Structures are given as structure tokens and as C-alpha cells.
Amino acid sequence: MKTKTIALSLGLILVAGGLYAADPFEGTWKLNESKSKLTRGTDKDTKIVYNSRLIADTVAVTTDGVEGNGTPFHSEWKGKFDGKDYAITGDPDANMRSYKKMNDRTLSMTAKKGGEVVLYGLITVSADGKSQDVNLASSAAAASVYKEKKDKGFRNKAVYDKE
Q1: Can you give the pLDDT at residue 42?
Q2: Element spanning 17, H or E
Q3: 95: which of 23, 115, 136, 145 lies 20 to 30 Å off by Cα?
């Protein structure tokens, strides 16, 4: 009886671990500047960490980077990949962000400040799970929200390698 219980417990642990490992976003991603195409003067996220080990399908996304003027920042977002807005702290350009899972390897993202959409993004993990492309575009509303930055719009493609 004990052998069956131990075998069943180990089997459940392995299955749960396999399901967890199957999330291609999970982990730490570091910016590969040589493969990226970043607009001069825009913020640069140098490290992104996805942690889905939280309760009730909640995900934590932490970002370290530098603003366009070189000032470092650290932001934190907790929510679900359900397309709803959740608060973000530490982001110099947004106070709300939403992610929506498009498929197993693709997320869409929207960032807002004061209720105005300021950024759209599409995040795609490669088939081998070793890199991800983050395509970002400022919205037309960003120009009015960020007059002090004289934002006329931008498109960035950032490439990240999994650590």
C-alpha cells in the first residue's frame, strides 16, 4: 500500500512539474541589444522576469531597465493573462497594464496611463523557448499624455534571451 501511495505521489509531482515547465514565458529574460531595434530615447527593459508560481493563475512580471534619459527603473505587475487592466508600480510611463494570452507562445499587451492607452505590444516566445521577441508601438494618445517627452510615436523590436 505504501509503495502505491509513494508511486502515485511521485507521479503527481512529475505531472505538475511538467505542466509548470511547459509555460514558455516563465523565467528570466535578458535583453540582446545586438539583435534588437530600439528607437533612440525610448525606455529600454534590460531584464524581464515572469513568475507564474503564484496563487489562482496570478502571474508576476518584474522589469528592470533604463528610461530614455538613462535613469534606471524597476517595475512590478501582478495579474492574470486575461486582457483586464491590473496596476503596475515603478513604470515611468504607465500605471495600468493588461496581458492577454493569444496562444501558447504569444501574449498581447496594452499599457495605460490615466486611462489612456500609451503602448501596445506583442510578445512571442520562439519555438525552441530560448528567445522572445517583444514588439512595442506607442499609440497616438501617447503624444498627448507625454508632451514633456515630445513623443511622436515609435516602434521597437526587443529580442530577449532566456537565462
Answers
A1: 84
A2: helix 2-21
A3: 23
- Determine contact, residues 131/123, Cβ cutoff 8 Å: no
Distance from C-alpha of 135 to C-alpha of 3, rounded to nearest angstrom: 51
> In Å, how far are 24, 35, 94, 126, 146 from 159, measured between CA atoms?
15, 6, 21, 10, 25
What's the average pLDDT block by block, 10 residues per block, for the chain (163 residues)?
Answer: 46 42 86 93 91 82 92 95 96 93 95 91 96 88 49 83 96
Measuring CA to CA, how many Å separate 52 from each of 21, 26, 126? 10, 7, 19
Provide CATH code, domain 25-162. 2.40.128.20
Contact 7, 110 (CB under 8 A): no
- Look at the alpha carbons of 77, 118, 152, 146 in this order and tell me if their dihedral is positive or negative: negative
Three cell numbers written together for 40: 533612440
**The pLDDT value given to residue 20:** 46
